[in-house]
Amino acid sequence: MKYVVLLGDGMADVQVKELNGKTPLQYARTPNMDFLAANGAIGMVRTIPEGFPPGSDVANLSVMGYDPQKYYTGRSPLEAVSMGIVLEDQDVAFRCNLVTLSAQDKYQEKTMIDYSADEITTAEAKELIKTVEEYLSSENIHFYPGISYRHLLVWQGGPSATELTPPHDISGRLITDYLPRGAGSHILMKLMEASFNYLQNHPVNLNRIKNGLRPANSIWLWGQGTRPAIPKFFDQFGLNGAVISAVDLVKGIGTCAGLEVLEVAGATGNIHTNYQGKALAAVEALNKGHDFVYIHVEAPDEAGHRGELQNKIKAIEAVDEMLGELLNGLNQQDNPYKIMLLPDHPTPLSTRTHSSEPVPFAIYTRGEDKNLNNTYNEEAAEQSGLIFPKGWELMACFLNQK
Fold first, then answer.
1. Does the global pTM surpass 0.90?
2. Tell me: the pLDDT tens digits for 224-263?
3. How is 352-393 classified by DSSP, letter by letter?
4. CA geometry: angle at 252 spanning 249 and 258, to 5°?
5. Cα-trace Rg, the chain
């Protein structure tokens, strides 16, 4: 048996007035998702345990079959693993976003204009992080470039309990009430303030402004944690597998779990990602001997964070087309297979951030078509009556091990 998980990050939502009270999943044209729902099983799964932040880190750990209460040590350490950064026992890693803040003189009075600085290119961002490292690093603090707006700070002997806020949670808001608090906050605050002074007139940003793009004029620190210790997926489930994603977070979880990280040309983490390439890479990996592939698609989440209704619908429909490519490729082989479709968490357009409500899943097994009158969306999945209150238990069920 071959197993595929297709995860559309942030696909779930709430009813939208502009869609006549439908959710984006209900409104979008999704014939392949509906095929899974009509011929398999649908239900709801709570991927965020009570008391945990509704982040993709916690949610993807759950979906991959790991109890966050046992294995979650923070978001940034997982990204560090993907970036090849070796964390020592005393190291604390922080996500370091490049963001666009408003131009008020006092840092505390600025507004979060854009948590991704217009999705700055990786090449531009590398130059900015190089400057930040040059002027703001110290014996115990260093900055590492990542992809687009997503980067890393590692603080040897740093605090892990500082109160920090994800920048995508405060889009369009004054940052006054969301600045670092608690242990080490004064140092993190100084780094953020100083970064604005070095970045606002950086040649990269002056060129971006000239071209009508938002400048990446500050770093924003959040998502801290220590080195993770996740059991290997093979030890948990007895399957060799691979992960396909454009973001370091999911790659890092996959690496920690001992899954092969497959790189796909044109995989960007936004609406313009290479959907078809990801699907074809998954089919090829299964044909070459892998038993399990975990495919992560970031695009719906990015649209949700940016409040872009049409782009969220477009992203969902692109995921559906990707699912069609997967089904076509899998059906051309003789292998039996199961495929599971789900989001990791909702990213409602109305709030532009994650929420912790349960999300809909669909599981289809080749050759067991049921021809039900089901469609794939939040309402239909809830009406099924099937729910997994502990999200990490869904994987074992999917793999026929529970």
1. no
2. 999 888 999 999 999 999 999 999 999 999 999 999 999 9
3. TS---S-EEEEEEETT-----S---SHHHHHHT--EESSTTH
4. 150
5. 21
Residue pair 149/130 in contact by the 8 Å Cβ criterion = no
Distance in angstroms (rounded) separating the CA atoms of residues 89 and 159: 12
Q: Is 241 exposed, middle or buried (0-12, 13-18, 19+ CB in 10 A)?
A: buried
d(CA 88, CA 118): 34
The DSSP symbol for 319 reads H
Cα–Cα distance measured from residue 271 to residue 273, given in angstroms and rounded to the nearest whole number: 6
**C-alpha span between 234 and 240 (Å, rounded):** 6
Q: Which residue ranges form the domains of the chain, and what is each CATH number?
A: 2-73+229-398 (3.40.720.10), 82-225 (no CATH)
Residues 254 and 261: their CA atoms lie apart, in Å, by 7
Q: Are 208 and 214 in contact (CB under 8 A)?
A: yes
Cβ–Cβ < 8 Å for 264, 274: yes
